[in-house]
Amino acid sequence: MYCLSYWVVLLVSLLASSVGFYKYIWFISVGYGFSIAAIGMALAIGFHNGMALPEWIACMLLIVYGLRLGGYLLIREIRSAEYRKVLSPEIKRSKKMPFVAKAGLWVSCAVLYTLMTIPLFFRLRDGVKPDAMLWIGLVVMACGIVLESVADMQKTAAKRKNSRRFVDSGLYRFVRCPNYLGELLLWLGMFLTGTTALRGALQWILALLGFLLIVWVMFSSARRLELRQDRNYGSDPEYQKYVSSVPIIIPFVPLYSVKKYKFLIA
């Protein structure tokens, strides 16, 4: 059943994420989305001879997710002057970043993206037959994609009405970072697709590493957003009431702030 090497998947991820050399922030934004889409395409092409319907669905979910995210971030940056203003410090920092540092970030991101998708890779490579856990993982992945997409649309709509106010409508009434929650669900689903297919300690270590790293990245992103929003809205009593009553990333879990956790990169 072996059709595609991990190193080919890594090469695909490297090529897709190389857009970050234009703006280093793209390594973890636009390049992230396009890398996931490219990996989904590579898996679909490389293993097409032995794939069943749920495995095709898994690859399509990665493609749809990656293209939507990469396209959304790219369009937002092009159209939104307010967002470009937010990115301005990052762009200035990018111009001063040494090439070696950019190359290190590039490779690290590309490896991370392959580890995040490696449960599906191992299932396809080893020819494991579809089972109930694969379908459960697909449902969780789909829910994550829908949640993130709706959250992004609601935030865009709210910012059009008032670009200077924090967003607390729609899904943001229940959790302050519903888009990050959707992302966590997506990658939880991806991990679940491989739990009955992983064989041996190495496969489990790589799959767990990919999942735990993206969890860390999402909470780091939440911390970075929290610090930025504190600077922008910290003097607003409504904002203070909002952040003290709405969980930051996991609904119904009373975790309202992560800014004190300095192991999360901001």
> What's the main sheet like?
none
Shape: globular
Rg, Cα atoms, Å? 19 Å
Estimated helix fraction? 55-70%
Strand proportion, as a percent range, falls in under 5%
For the termini, the CA-CA separation is 43 Å
E-strand count: 0
Count of the separate structural domains: 2
* Unreliable sequence segments: none
**What is the H-and-E element order?**
HHHHHHHHHH
Overall pLDDT metric: 92
Structural class: mainly alpha
With helices defined by DSSP (H or I, 4 residues minimum), what is the helix count? 10
Keywords:
70% helix; 266 residues; mainly alpha; 0% strand
Explain what you see:
This protein is mainly α. It folds into 2 domains: 1-129, no CATH class; 131-266, no CATH class. It is built from 10 helices and no strands. It has helices spanning 6-17, 30-46, 53-79, 81-96, 99-116, 118-125, 132-161, 178-194, 200-233, 237-243. α1 runs antiparallel to α2, α1 crosses α5 and α2 (30-46) crosses α5. The model has no long low-confidence stretch (mean pLDDT 92).
Short description:
This protein is an all-alpha fold and 266 residues long. It has helices spanning 6-17, 30-46, 53-79, 81-96, 99-116, 118-125, 132-161, 178-194, 200-233, 237-243. It starts with 5 loop residues before the first helix and ends in a 23-residue tail after the last helix.
